[in-house]
Amino acid sequence: MKHVTVTEAEAQFDKLVAEVESTGDEVIITRDGVPIARLVREKDKLSNDELTPEQIERRRQAGLNLREIGKRLNIGATQEEIKSWIEEGRR
Length: 91
Description:
This protein is of the alpha+beta class. It has two domains: 1-43, YefM-like fold (3-Layer(aba) Sandwich); 45-91. 55% of the residues lie in helices and 16% in strands. A hairpin with a 2-residue loop joins strand 2 (27-31) and strand 3 (34-39).
């Protein structure tokens, strides 16, 4: 996720839109260091076929990192319990 100031966003808008469109990454626009807007690709749910190899690898690595954190914390929860907690948090 990239952060740019309002001034930078104004000066580089075409470039930022092209970057978001091609990579699917988000751009956060800030004013005085405070996030005020988010530039995202219109299609919010990408299938694995639409993800770049780098995005797929980042997601895979994030999953591995979460598993490692879970082992260190010794939560003792099943995958089903964790999924239900995630769904509960989305409501």
